[in-house]
Write a structure and sequence with these properties.
This protein is mainly α. 81% of the residues lie in helices and 0% in strands. The protein is globular. The relative contact order is 0.14.
Length: 234
C-alpha cells in the first residue's frame, strides 16, 4: 500500500496535476480569506471554508480522474492485476495519495488562522471543526471520484462523470425541500453531504456525521476494489 501511495504522490508532481490543483486551491483560498476575513477585519473563517467546500467539488475530479483510468489506458493495470497484490491495498494507496494532496491544499487555512491570531484570537474550536469537516467531506468525494475513475480509461470522462455526481450531491438539499412531508424531507437530508458538513463548521463533532463520511469512503473503496477484482478475473 505504501509503495502505491508513494508512486501516486510522485505521479501527481511529475505531471502538472498536483501543481494545478494546489495552485487553484490556494488562489481561491486566498481570495476567500481576503474578501471574507481580512477586508471585514474579522476572525471568523467560516466563509473561507464554506467557499472552499464549493471549490472542492470542482477540483476533486482533477485529483481523481487519472488514479485508475490512467493505469487502464497505459495497460499498466495488467501488471498490477496479475501481481500477488491485495487489491484493496492498491485502492487504498491511491486513495491516500489523493487525500494527502488534498490535505496539502487545506493546510493553507491553518496558515490563515495563525495569521489572524496575531491580531485577535480566532475561535480555534470552529477552525478545527471546519478543517476536520473539510477533510471528511473531501475524503468522501475522493472515494467517489476514485470509483468513477475505475470505470473508464478516459480521464476526461472520469472527470466529467465525477463532477456530474458531485453536482447531483450538491442538489440533495434542493430535492429535500420539494418533499411533500417532513419525514421524507429528513430522509433525503440524511444523505446530504452539505448538511453533514455544516455541523462541523460550528465546532460540533457529531459522531453520526463522522460515521456517515467514513461509511461513504468505505462503500466506494469497496466498490472500486470489486471493479478491479472483476477485471482481474475477466
Amino acid at each position: 500500500m505504501s509503495a502505491i501511495m508513494r508512486r501516486e504522490l510522485s505521479a501527481y508532481f511529475t505531471s502538472p496535476i498536483g501543481y494545478i490543483f494546489l495552485s487553484v486551491f490556494y488562489i481561491f483560498a486566498g481570495f476567500f480569506f481576503f474578501t471574507g476575513t481580512l477586508v471585514s477585519s474579522s476572525t471568523d473563517m467560516t466563509g473561507v471554508f464554506s467557499g472552499l467546500s464549493t471549490i472542492t467539488m470542482f477540483l476533486i475530479p482533477i485529483l481523481t480522474m487519472r488514479l485508475m483510468s490512467e493505469d487502464k489506458k497505459q495497460k499498466t493495470d495488467q501488471a498490477l492485476l496479475t501481481a500477488p497484490l491485495n487489491l484493496f491495498s492498491l485502492v487504498l494507496g491511491k486513495f491516500l495519495a489523493a487525500l494527502i494532496v488534498f490535505a496539502m491544499g487545506l493546510v493553507i487555512t491553518v496558515v490563515f488562522a495563525a495569521t489572524v491570531s496575531f491580531f485577535a484570537a480566532p475561535d480555534w474550536a470552529v477552525v478545527f471543526g471546519n478543517f476536520v469537516g473539510s477533510l471528511f467531506y473531501g475524503s468522501a468525494l475522493i472515494s467517489i471520484g476514485l470509483f468513477i475513475s475505475s470505470l473508464t480509461e478516459n480521464q476526461m470522462i472520469a472527470a466529467v462523470g465525477s463532477f456530474a455526481v458531485m453536482i447531483a450531491l450538491n442538489l440533495i438539499d434542493a430535492v429535500a425541500s420539494l418533499m411533500p412531508n417532513q419525514f421524507l424531507q429528513d430522509l433525503v437530508l440524511g444523505i446530504s453531504f452539505y448538511q453533514r458538513y455544516t455541523d462541523f463548521t460550528t465546532g460540533i463533532f457529531n459522531f453520526a456525521n463522522i460515521i456517515f463520511f467514513l461509511s461513504v469512503c468505505a462503500v466506494f473503496l469497496f466498490l472500486t476494489t470489486r471493479v478491479l477484482e472483476k477485471r482481474r478475473w475477466s
